[in-house]
Amino acid sequence: MATRHILLVEDEAPLREAVAEQLTDRGFHVEQAASGDDAIDRLASFAFDIIITDLRLGTGADGTAVLDEARAVYPDIIGIIVTGYGTVKDAVEAIKRGATDFIQKPFQFDELLHIINTALEQRRLRAENAYLRKQLEERYRFEGIIGKSTAMKELFALLETVAQTSSTILVTGETGTGKELVAHAIHHNSPRRAQRFVAIHCGAIPETLLEAELFGHVRGAFTGAVATRPGRFEEANRGTLFLDEVSTMPPSLQMKLLRVIQGREVQRLGDQGVVKVDVRIIAATNHDLAKMVAEGTFREDLYYRLAVIPVPMPPLRDRKDDVPLLVQHFLNKFGADLARDREPGTPAPALSIAQEALRHLMSHNWPGNVRELENALERAVALTGGRRQIDVRDLPPSIQAAGASIAPLDVAIPDAGFDLPGYIDKLERDVIARALDKTEGNKGAAAKLLNLKRTTLVEKLKRMGRTAGAGRDDTQPA
Ligand SMILES: Nc1ncnc2c1ncn2[C@@H]1O[C@H](COP(=O)(O)OP(=O)(O)OP(=O)(O)O)[C@@H](O)[C@H]1O
Ligand SMILES: [Mg+2]
Known about the structure:
This protein is an alpha/beta fold. The protein has 4 domains: 5-135, Rossmann fold; 150-314, Rossmann fold; 318-405, Helicase, Ruva Protein, domain 3 (Orthogonal Bundle), CATH 1.10.8; 420-463, Arc Repressor Mutant, subunit A, CATH 1.10.10. It contains 19 helices and 16 strands. The chain has a 5-stranded parallel sheet with strand order 2-1-3-4-5, sandwiched between helices. A 5-stranded parallel sheet has the order 7-10-13-6-14. The longest helix is centred in the first third of the chain and has 29 residues, at 109-137. Bound molecules: adenosine-5'-triphosphate and magnesium ion.
């Protein structure tokens, strides 16, 4: 930690020197001032972290004046007031005017040290919160998409360019990574933003209806077609059509879709004529379309038409540095919802999260990505019941468990030294053995539990000379 600079203002020389010496012993850098005027002079030329001042200072400026001056120049300075007997009321007054804390003479040095350390910790947290808030407030071109990681910066750069075009886009990524969010963002930042964004979830609509839904139909085209209706393509004319979960589209429709994309015209069901459409298509899927092409379940030609510009969404576990930012984003969001529900019109209380809870969130693997994080925080905010801080106990049990298993270990380093590689080796063996116990020797399942590839686990077992979980037949494939 950086050295902290303290200005100690006290007119009683013996006391001042004694305290200065003890503070210096604890690693602080201390300057002494014997009077208020001297203190004010020193404040003008140096940015102290902490000022400790006696309230009564003989002649010249008193402690309150010194503190006022300090805070005027350095709003973030930690001001600690030392009071004599019977001046507590004045100290309280000083706190109201911005002092951080006070201590009454005579005091134990440890009491003062405790006050200093608490104040430093509080200031650190405040600074951290302010930093996060500032990062959130920074205006992105793509508002509502939170992220500062390298992966997200790359995504923003990509979105920036593709939004300007009308090219077909294929957004891929695991569930909850923000595919739909990104599709919206592209539309709203494109020249088509004044026109409609029409979304259709291909998997949610039965095959027979999907065709009519996409391309429209005339009256009597099929049983139940009581009126003529334009399809989603026509609705999205000059705007954007979002084809969500495009991998679920049946082969017959895949072909028709391909034709529309190539010909830029649609034919309503039961109609002879065609309608010209100018639609930008954004498709999304959490399936591996390339693999489906290889397996013959998705048309190759359609795949290439859709994937003109692929936009891959990074999973949250690969950009954990975004977790604190997302947490703050969702706390603001759900905190505001909560305040509105409780007492309409009242400003939302600022919710924060305990560092320990944040550590749990950072170590979780997030198979459900941002949606899972969002849900976890919505639940946590609901469970706080008016508390301002999210604690570990407010998190879903699975996440509490995740963090606990990698809690920092309490390792004492002996004077004789510590064999770190040996220790890590042993740790790895133990954890792998436990995972294999839990899965009754199933390596595939154990690898999954440990967030390893199966091949990696097998490698490790080989390297270890395979003793973990001995007594079981491990040569059987899992
Ligand atoms: N980067 C982000 N910043 C803020 N919110 C996000 C971000 N990514 C996702 N979200 C939020 O997470 C939730 C899930 O996002 P979205 O619905 O876009 O995911 P998806 O990739 O379409 O998932 P699925 O494949 O399950 O449909 C939404 O509430 C969305 O607003
Ligand atoms: Mg989606």
